[in-house]
């Protein structure tokens, strides 16, 4: 699904693996609500209302920092929403690629809760920069095309 109201990240190694951000809305200036869907062969998982608060660390900033460090880093870097519904863990591998493990775990403290995760691999430079820009604009309620690129078409990072 690619439209001005959504951002889709597809794994460059297997394009059937992906993450889609969509259905953004807000009740007030303190938060943004949105849906996140994970897809992979045999897996479809969606949380309809992930909440980002203004006092949370920013997903776009986390992705920007990964893009800035396109030459690589040691170990794992991670980010999550305040309530833990969405988490992202990033690793760098040789050849200039970043693995983003996207995890949905709604109602983590509830009995019968569930979790799902997919990993997308992207180029450390241009694709990570485009993803950070697209997420920033999606969360802000606007959309900015990242321009022509082999990695990005509309709001879809491949």
Question: Explain this structure to me?
Answer:
This protein has 158 residues and is of the alpha+beta class. It has two helices and ten strands; from the N terminus they run ββββαββββαββ. The strands form two sheets. Strands 4-3-2-1-10-9 form a six-stranded mixed beta sheet, with helices on one face. A four-stranded antiparallel beta sheet has the order 5-6-7-8, covered by helices on one side. The C terminus is likely disordered.
Outline:
The protein has 158 residues and is α+β, with helices and mostly antiparallel strands. The protein has two helices and ten strands.
Supply the key terms.
158 residues; alpha+beta; four-stranded antiparallel beta sheet; 2 helices; globular
Record the SSE blueprint.
Blueprint: E1 7-10, E2 18-25, E3 31-40, E4 43-53, H1 59-68, E5 76-80, E6 86-93, E7 97-104, E8 116-123, H2 126-140, E9 152-153, E10 156-157
Parallel strand pairs: 1-10
Antiparallel strand pairs: 1-2, 2-3, 3-4, 5-6, 6-7, 7-8, 9-10
State the distance separating the first and last CA atoms: 12 Å
Number of DSSP helices? 2
Shape: globular
What spatial order of strands do you see in the largest sheet? 4-3-2-1-10-9
Sheet with most strands:
6 strands, mixed
Strand element count: 10
Mean pLDDT: 84
Spans with pLDDT under 50 lasting ≥5 residues? 143-158
Helical amount: 10-25%
Category by helix and strand content: alpha+beta
Strand content: 35-45%
| Rg calculated over all Cα atoms | 15 Å
Q: What's the order of the H and E elements? A: EEEEHEEEEHEE
């Amino acid at each position: 699904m690619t439209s001005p109201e959504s951002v889709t990240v597809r794994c460059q190694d297997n394009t059937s693996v992906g993450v889609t951000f969509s259905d953004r809305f807000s009740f007030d200036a303190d938060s943004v609500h949105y849906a996140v869907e994970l897809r992979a062969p045999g897996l479809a998982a969606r949380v309809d209302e992930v909440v980002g608060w203004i006092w949370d660390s920013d997903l776009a900033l986390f992705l920007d920092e990964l893009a800035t460090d396109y030459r690589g880093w040691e170990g794992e870097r991670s980010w999550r929403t305040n309530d833990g519904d969405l988490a992202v863990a990033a690793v760098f591998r040789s050849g200039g690629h970043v693995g983003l493990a996207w995890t949905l775990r709604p109602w983590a403290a509830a009995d019968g809760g569930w979790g799902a995760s997919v990993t997308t691999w992207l180029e450390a430079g241009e694709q990570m920069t485009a993803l950070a820009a697209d997420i920033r604009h999606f969360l802000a309620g606007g959309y900015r095309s990242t321009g022509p690129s082999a990695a990005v078409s509309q709001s879809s990072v491949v």
